[in-house]
């Protein structure tokens, strides 16, 4: 069992991991879990809904480099980094997928997007999924083609996109070398 306490959210997170063949015990034994957003580890499983009502599961994000951004309409740092993130979308799409995850209703996101440009594929989710990322937003990760977290950043601002640009360039270069 992996226990995590998030005092800021008054939340206890836990996971129970079973190993298949532990000395003939069919139930297995608890196996240590990694941090939910550990660089070098696969991103945790979650489900979001796009603005058209279609559900998207995190394993569906595999197959190409993906940038996932957790944000909120009331978050000034989130809004400050949108223009820079839009530059990344223009530079890297369709090679890279860009997904934004908000804890709002689709109608709230649509009203917001009527006033602000944010070119990521917009999705919404429940507060319980949002809690899995920790205490702060914006929170943005870069995933490789296998869904492994290669870069993780909490917080943002007008120039934060430059850090992601370096990470995306490095992943694309690695992808080209492996062809």
Characterise the protein shown here.
The protein has 179 residues and is α+β, with helices and mostly antiparallel strands. The protein has two domains: 1-33, no CATH class; 36-177, 3-Layer(aba) Sandwich (Glutaredoxin). The chain is 26% helix and 26% strand. The strands form two sheets. A seven-stranded mixed sheet has the order 4-3-7-6-5-8-9, covered by helices on one side. A two-stranded antiparallel sheet has the order 1-2. α1 (76-92) runs parallel beside α4 (161-177). The longest helix has 17 residues, at 76-92.
Radius of gyration: 17 Å
- Secondary structure tally: strands: 9
Alpha-carbon distance between the two ends: 40 Å
Q: What is the overall silhouette?
A: globular
Strand content: 25-35%
Biggest beta sheet summary: 7 strands, mixed
The top level CATH class name of the largest domain: Alpha Beta
- Kindly report the average pLDDT value: 81
Order of helices and strands: EEEEEHEHEHEEH
* Low-confidence region ranges: 14-35
């Amino acid at each position: 069992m992996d226990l995590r306490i998030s005092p800021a959210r008054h939340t206890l997170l836990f996971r129970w991991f079973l190993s298949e063949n532990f000395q003939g015990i069919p139930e297995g034994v608890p196996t240590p879990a990694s941090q939910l957003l550990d660089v070098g580890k696969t991103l945790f499983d979650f489900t979001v809904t796009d603005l058209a009502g279609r559900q998207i599961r995190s394993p569906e994000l595999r197959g190409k480099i993906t940038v996932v951004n957790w944000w909120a309409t009331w978050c000034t740092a989130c809004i400050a980094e949108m223009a820079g993130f839009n530059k990344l979308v223009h530079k890297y799409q369709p090679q890279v997928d860009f997904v934004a995850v908000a804890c709002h209703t689709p109608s709230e996101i649509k009203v917001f997007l009527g006033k602000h440009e944010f070119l990521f594929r917009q999705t919404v989710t429940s507060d319980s999924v949002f809690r899995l990322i920790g205490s702060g937003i914006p929170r943005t990760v870069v995933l490789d083609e296998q869904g492994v977290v290669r870069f993780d950043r909490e917080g943002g601002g007008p120039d934060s996109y430059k850090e992601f640009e370096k990470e995306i360039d490095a992943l694309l270069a690695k992808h080209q070398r492996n062809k």
